[in-house]
């Protein structure tokens, strides 16, 4: 008997080991095999999965998109489904995850307030409706039909699910909520639970989003005027907890791409506007006035790194840029030196937003040896004056207006020895000693305070220039360009503008520029 004990213990240990080996657990991450410079095969590297908190209302379509993405890129996507508010709490408490996709973007606004998300990418929309069995046996045709005692009505929890929250808000505004609340038989955790109740006959009607019913062939929906305000705008937010914003944004761009994720969303009954074309690494072209370069270059570099995109920027005088656009070159975005040069291409850029202001100044050598105090003094005999070229840049066009309004155009132009397409060229000539004075932007003088002085032009309003930004009507990447615009409006970007001598224009800047598709 005593000899049997060790054998029994050993057998039990082996059995436990076998159970451990065959029991299901978290699947291992796939690996990627790389090749060294010498051509040898390196040890495989595990691919970190992308983690998403996703509203239950998007489950069916998300599963389809997830399968597409994993097949195309070999990157696993782990999704946690549930009510939008519950998922928000989970993301906040756990401080984990890459993306948050609630049933309505109002939850993303809350997430922003709590500093949980950064970029937000728009995807699609859903409409609030009443789910009923096929052929509507309960004969629900009007709102009052939901209030009849024989009708068993179910709703999603307003404190957890987006559809419940929106229904309560919309009907409270119409003084109808208390009556519907009293007529509700039960509240469920998610919108899918509501649809399931109607499907199995546990309820006669339920308030859901229309797209949810795509996977319920035995159900149909009834649209009611009282529910018209219940619209869910679906967007995905990049969580600050992500360890790789570039990977998170890669999936977000895939999800919102016209020829990738949006195809699936439409297939599953969602209402989707035109999205970006898909590109593994999009290349967007930006035309920008030369004087903006010092203020925006660092922001663009950071944007490229975070987004995993290429921004092909072309800096030049705005007159030259406008000529190139009229000749057929169409960038994805245009950041003009002055609104006048945006107005010349409104056919390409119908909607723009002002970002900053700059002002013309008179630049002179340190200590102002020529005693120049105003525009009038630029007409003194013998002075060598430099200005911007009227046809090639906003600065030159603005200078001519300023000289004319100041009543000194004729006198000053007699002393003009050079006209350039950019203010930087004037600064270089002034520092080299070939000019005594130049009219350029204050931002042009910002980096030369050790060598030059700037004299303000007083009393002439037109000496101020406003710099607008716009997304091209025909851009293939309007959402990506919109996020570039959002990056240009951040606090860090604003500080760079101020340091370069610009003034910040928008008091409450809008992050989203209207997109024309």
Characterize the structure shown.
There is one protein chain. The chain is of the alpha/beta class and 517 residues long. It has 4 domains: 46-123 and 233-267, D-Maltodextrin-Binding Protein, domain 2, CATH 3.40.190.10; 125-231, D-Maltodextrin-Binding Protein, domain 2 (3-Layer(aba) Sandwich); 283-356 and 466-504, D-Maltodextrin-Binding Protein, domain 2; 358-464, Periplasmic binding protein-like II (D-Maltodextrin-Binding Protein, domain 2, 3-Layer(aba) Sandwich). The chain is built from 18 helices and 21 strands. It has helices at residues 4-22, 59-73, 84-94, 106-113, 162-173, 177-183, 191-200, 245-255, 261-267, 293-307, 318-326, 339-343, 394-405, 409-413, 423-432, 442-445, 478-488, 491-499; strands spanning 31-32, 45-46, 50-55, 77-82, 99-101, 117-133, 153-156, 184-188, 205-209, 219-222, 231-239, 283-289, 310-316, 333-335, 352-365, 385-388, 416-420, 437-441, 452-456, 464-471, 503-504. The strands form 3 sheets. Strands 12, 13, 14, 15, 16, 17, 18, 19, 20 and 21 form a 10-stranded mixed sheet that branches. Strands 3, 4, 5, 6, 7, 8, 9, 10 and 11 form a 9-stranded mixed sheet that branches. Helix 2 links the parallel strand 3 and strand 4 (77-82). Helix 10 runs antiparallel to helix 18 (491-499). The longest helix is centred in the N-terminal third of the chain and has 19 residues, at 4-22.
Per the principal axes of the C-alpha atoms, what is the gross shape?
A: elongated
Structural class: alpha/beta
- How would you sum up the major sheet? 10 strands, mixed
CATH architecture of the largest domain: 3-Layer(aba) Sandwich
**What is the mean predicted local confidence, pLDDT?**
88
Helical residue percent? Answer: 25-40%
